[in-house]
Amino acid sequence: MISADMRRSIKVDLHIKTNNTEHRTSEISENELIVRRGQRFTLSLNLTQPFNPDLYPLTITALTGEHPAEHLGTLSYMSIPDGVQRSPSAKAVWKMELHKNSSPLLGNLTLSITPPADAPIGDYRLSMKHQREEALLATLSVLFNPWCPDDWVFLPDEVERQEYVMNEQGIIYRGSTNYISPMTWDFGQFEENMVKICMKILDKNRKHLIDPVDDVTARCNPIYVSRVVSAMINSQDDNGVLMGRWSGSFGDGVSPTHWNGSHVILQRWFNRGCQPVKYGQCWVFAGVMCSVMRLLGIPCRVITNFQSAHDSNQNLIIDVYHADYGVRERPSTDSIWNYHVWVEAWMRRPDLSKDGKYDGWQVLDPTPQERSNGLYCCGPASVKAILNGETHLKYDVPFVYAEVNADCVDWLVKADGSKVNILSDTKRVGHSISTKSVGSNKRMDITDSYKQREGSEMERAVFKYAKNRLHNRGEETETSGSISPLPRVSMRFDEVSKPMNGKDVHLNLVLHSESKVARLLSVNITVQGTRYNGSPVVSIQTEMKQETLQPGRDLSIPILIPFSVYRQHMHEYDSMKVSAIVTDINSPDNTYLAEDDVVLVDPPVSITVIGQARLNRNTNGEMIIKNPVNETLKDCRLTVSGSGLLREEIKCRLPDMKPNTQIRASFSFVPYKIGQKTLVVNIDCSTFRNIKASYTVNVFP
Fold this sequence. Notes:
By secondary structure, this protein is an alpha+beta fold.
């Protein structure tokens, strides 16, 4: 038993500032010792009597979790001299050395202690025993170490480590393939209480509640930890961080489009007794997971896949149904999302191959879509395995492979229930796979790391290989109807002007055929309001017409979607899907399809910071927005946030905005961290939801 008197009699200096700086954790805390495994740290002891190691060795114990044991790697003994009796089955052995600057005769000892590179991460207790003295020396947190070559998360490039571990600001891409829109996201992984929050996330996972000893032991493995985090970011199986919602009202929580960063979400979950925060969608889940992973020391980045498939039956085929004119839509368990967002984490995968073949970036997806081994989590799935169609490998490679490379079959559902195959498309899924560039805010396209070039022989060969490795699991594609071999009608949509929210949308549908005769066509154009996951919500307008397509010539059909028509429908939704089904009237089995996802561009917002921003000094900013529509904007609200700039969000109401007027709003903040930070504003009103803008602020000492 360690008595309070003994604890007081021994003086301990944890050198928190020096240690945290050397371990690159000083951004997290200046008051708590936070170290990375595989790297030594220093502490000083002032004993009450001289230190004679030959007569009285000094023993220090490091332990974590419940019922710690040497063979589990959760208990380790160190001694000077190194003669302590260890279990033959001891794992994750800590090391200790006596520094040359020590003064043993005075009882002043400087110790270098090294947690092994395979130690379980988490909160530890260090205690000592010397002669009759015992004392609790320290409580500390141990994180993964991407700077240590022996750690499974080692990332060789320092510039990449700064981006994927240390950078608190990032960009998440949304929109559609033709309208890629960057959104600033504040990861804030080094904000207040983040170590406590992330350790609480690990402790609240279902496996820990069932078997805490086994769970803590497994925390030495980033494969295991990342899988736990993937499950805990959503609340589908447990009291995870975020509750998802893709339809209905968000009135009892926060709309997913309102969030600007992770810390406010994580802090809210922690402060409210680990009850799920309402609400999240894929980019929010991914942003929050990236913050947790970076805090824990696992290099992580956010990825967006445009035209992302959800293959529910794992047959690598997406069946899409289109209703003939006047026919009710047929639901499908498969879907294609305008975009889907997940994360990649960097780690070794010796569980897949000992030669490092599958090391590197791994896909992890915290959005609850399908169960994986009984839990709503996904990954880690090796990006290299996905590229090569290795669908037999764990974890969840078939699901992610389908997201980026499934084939699509489009069916026209007739009034009598029959189906006609109007299009088989091998190129629709998996476009412009994007992440933020290292060291800049430019978009980096990483599609080639996930899939072979579309249209190439290699892409088809890998697809066939992937299907074969699945052993033909799931349902086969439906077959019904046939199409006679008339020359095809090629179809495309052209923008007349950039689609701006608040303005009429102008498109042209362009048809072309190499037929030798004119063709009389029935053209059915529909416009639907859709969620970003591709599910239709509301019909905005429908137009049916007949047109004659002359041989070898383009036919351009103008499409007008007035703001007055789409306004009431698009207030809560993400995009409009414009579909054209064209049927040859004289040969009705010849039916063709074209689709376009129109993402409306929000009105611009201007942000200015006045003067030079300095640490702990009041700084003023200003926001300007103009009302672009011919109606008064009501219920206007402004939110300002930014880690390192504001400890709490600024929220304020703005006056109503009359047509074609602009409004200025001033605000102030006191930066509490130096360096490059990002200020984010969010504007919400009766007509426009969650318009965002950001501004880079350089904070000087």
